[in-house]
Amino acid sequence: MFTLRRWWDKNALKAGLIFLAIGTAWGIRQTNGGLIDEAYQVITRPFQSPSTQKQIENAYVLELQQRVIELENQNQKLRELVDYEEGSSLDTTTLAAVIGRSADLWWQQVTVNKGSRDGVNVGDVATGPGGLVGRIVNVTPNTARILLLSDPTSQIGAKVSRSRSTGYIRGETGSQATMQFFEKIPDVRPGDVLVTSSFSRLFPQDIPIGRVASIDRGTSPAPEAVIQLSVPISNLEWVAIHPYEPKLDVDAAPAQIVTDDNP
Amino acid sequence: MGGFAFMTSLRPRRRSDSRNQIWNWVFTIGSVLFCLLILPMRLPGMNILGVGPNWLLIWIVAWSISRSAFESAIAGIVLGLLQDSLTASFPTHALGLAIAGVLTARLQQRRFIREDLISIALIIFGFAIVTETAVAMQLTLQKIFDSDNALYAHLGSIWQHYQRVALSSAILSSLWAPALYYPLKRWWEKYAVTE
Fold first, then answer.
1. Are residues A114 and A198 in the same domain?
2. Is A113 an interface residue toward B (CB < 8 Å)?
3. Which residues cross the membrane (chain B) (predicted)?
4. Do residues A135 and A184 both lie within one domain?
């Protein structure tokens, strides 16, 4: 008992400090680094550049072109289908500037300067000039963290706008991604525009993603395509955030989720 | 954290000592905060293939080089948890940074390394690969044992990504190492002398 007491007298401060350090780090981790994100937002505020207007306009024109293609295809489908349900249009919560990138090398994330104070919620969808950017995974009062679609862990249900062939897109950390088709012989050509499909649980349908760069028909079980993402992921400066509720109960009522591809 | 060694000695202190001590703490915690805040930035020259230097690794090497393995492990865990908070709680960075800290302390105790900038750059090159391996191993184990919740669809894609990340992180971290290592080291040395 006495030796224990003496050990405690000698090491109480040390033990307390260790406990404090780990406790603080644990606490910050449990709050998803909210404090650090907020501090980062305050410190980088002077450097948050206003957008380079021209770049955005160019990318915006590209996005509009892709949207027009998508709308034309949709229109054509509409004539064929009698019981077509109208696709949901996106409301925009807010525009946000990108103020930081991922804090390690394994995640493809960006931090933006709008948070719950501006009505941003976890699960919301972010689009940028050119199309889909990703979805919100963490929110603090003045910042939000977006998991980019180029992250290898994000998988997005997608379809070829022209032929309605469906599959899913997996990020490859760069400006390109891989798409795996569900069909054995999909109707797809290089240059085809891809949009999010109605099978996607985490994203609303019909947001432009990119174009088909090349197709590898030799892979098993289904062909793969290399996708050129239309959003300039590496020098992204602004994103628009749209409210969205992820459809996580897909098993409950699949009939309600499949709206236009499988009437 | 600034010096467990002297704090445990219970000799009476002068006032300037305690003031020094406070400054040491401010500097230590401030430098960690600085590293955390610089992590999400991609300034020109700090960027290969969208990957930046691993500032926390440089910090942990500077910290561990003149401390015991235990102190290094604790610091590694603390920094790892902090980095987790900025990304995601799995895979944790605490493991890799703790390993890097312990190994640095052990290497130093065996006098395998000298403390000039070239050897520091080499050590950091090696440990950058070690820390990234720790992350890749966690992802691989998750894929093998808990395939349903695995973050990556294929083992191949983990290790493909690992190659790219480990190499560019190692190069950038070792090149940027002196910028952070030198001031930290100088401060802790100067502080130890005044102590």
1. yes
2. no
3. 22-43, 88-105, 117-141, 161-182
4. yes
- Considering only alpha carbons, which residue of chain B is nearest residue A154? B151
| DSSP letter (8 states) at residue B149 | G
CATH topology of domain B12-194: Arp2/3 complex 21 kDa subunit ARPC3 (1.10.1760)
| Other CB atoms within 10 Å distance of the CB of residue A176 | 16
Q: Which of A13, A32, A106 sits opposite B7 (nearest CB)?
A: A13
* Cβ neighbours of B109 (radius 10 Å): 11
Assess whether A148 and A96 both reside in one domain: yes
Token duo for residue A181: 């088709």
User: Closest residue of B to A26, CA-based?
Assistant: B81
Partners of A22 in beta bridges: none
Mean pLDDT of A177-193: 88
Q: Is the ipTM of this complex over 0.85?
A: no
Extended beta strands in chain A, E state: 94-101, 109-112, 125-128, 131-139, 144-148, 155-160, 166-171, 176-181, 193-196, 208-216, 224-229, 238-242
The pLDDT of residue A51: 58
A222: domain CATH number is 2.40.10.340
Q: How many structural domains comprise chain A?
A: 2
For A213, phi and psi rounded to 5 degrees? -90, -45
- DSSP designation for A128: E
Whether residues B54 and A234 touch (CB distance < 8 A) is answered with: no
Asked if residue A143 and residue A82 are part of one domain, the reply reads yes
Q: Does A11 touch chain B (CB under 8 A)?
A: yes
DSSP assignment, residue A86?
Answer: P
> Based on the domain organization, do A63 and A186 belong to the same domain?
yes
pLDDT per position as a tens digit, A19-61: 999 999 999 888 888 888 888 888 888 777 665 667 777 888 8
Six-digit token pair at A26? 């644990």
- Categorize the per-residue pLDDT at A250 as very low, low, confident or very high, splitting at 50, 70 and 90: low
**Domain residues of chain B, as ranges?**
12-194
